[in-house]
Structures are given as structure tokens and as C-alpha cells.
Amino acid sequence: MKSSPERTVPFRLRDNGIDLFVRLTPKAALDRIDGIEIAADGRSHLKARVRAVPENGAANQALERMMAKALGVPVSAVSVVAGGTSRLKTLRVVGEPRTLTKSVEALVGN
Predict the structure, then answer these.
(1) pLDDT value at residue 110
(2) pLDDT tens sequence for the chain (110 residues)
(3) Cα–Cα distance for residue pair 23/37, rounded to 1 Å
(4) For 74, which DSSP code?
(5) Does residue 49 belong to any structural domain of this protein?
């Protein structure tokens, strides 16, 4: 039995915000967002790079700060909720879901 991909956008709506799916590359030359990547299983992730090293949570904190700035929300509204030691992460972004959806779409050019 074939199953369809769980998601084609790099986020899931929640009552109080969104869950943003990210593929993080630490120790990059620049902090930046590189668009969307589709994995072999059909799931999409926002590609992000940070200069911080993946030690003691430094890369996760850099990702949280970068995404907060890019989405126009306070740093306290963004947190890694899954994948703390993995390249594939889920960020919880608290805020108005429609506004956050538009912000993510603007980041990736949709």
C-alpha cells in the first residue's frame, strides 16, 4: 500500500503557532536560510546553516535566534522541540499561525 507524503510544506499548523521542520548544517561559513529541501521520503524541510558548532546546544541556540529574527518573533517564541542532536529538527514557533505561515512562505519564495 502506497502512502502519500505526510507534508509538502516545511511546517505544521498548531493552535498557538507552527512546528517548523528544519535541516540544520552547523559550522557553516554564514548563518543563512537556503530554501526548502525535499527528502527521499517526500517530506520537506527548511534548509538552514549556522556558524555555531554543534556542541553544548550552541548550534540549536543559533538556529533559534536566526529563525526568530527571520520570522519577526521574539527569540523566546522559538524553541527546538525535537531533534536536539540531529540535523533534522522540529522548531516550535509560538504566534498567530496565519501570520507565521505567511512569514515562512516569504522566506522560501512561495
Answers:
(1) 62
(2) 344 444 478 999 999 999 999 999 999 999 999 999 998 888 899 999 999 999 999 999 999 999 999 999 999 999 999 988 899 999 999 999 999 999 998 888 76
(3) 8
(4) -
(5) yes
CATH number at residue 45: 3.30.1200.10
- Cα dihedral angle (9, 44, 71, 80), rounded to 10 degrees? 120
Q: How far is CA 14 from CA 10, 17, 87, 97, 109, in A?
A: 13, 5, 23, 7, 22
Which residue range(s) make up the domain with 75?
11-108
Distance separating alpha carbons of residues 103 and 57, to the nearest angstrom: 26
Identify which of 56, 62, 3 has the alpha carbon closest to the alpha carbon of residue 32. Answer: 62
Indicate the pairing of strand 78-82 with strand 88-94. antiparallel
- Residue 67, phi then psi, degrees to nearest 5: -70, -35
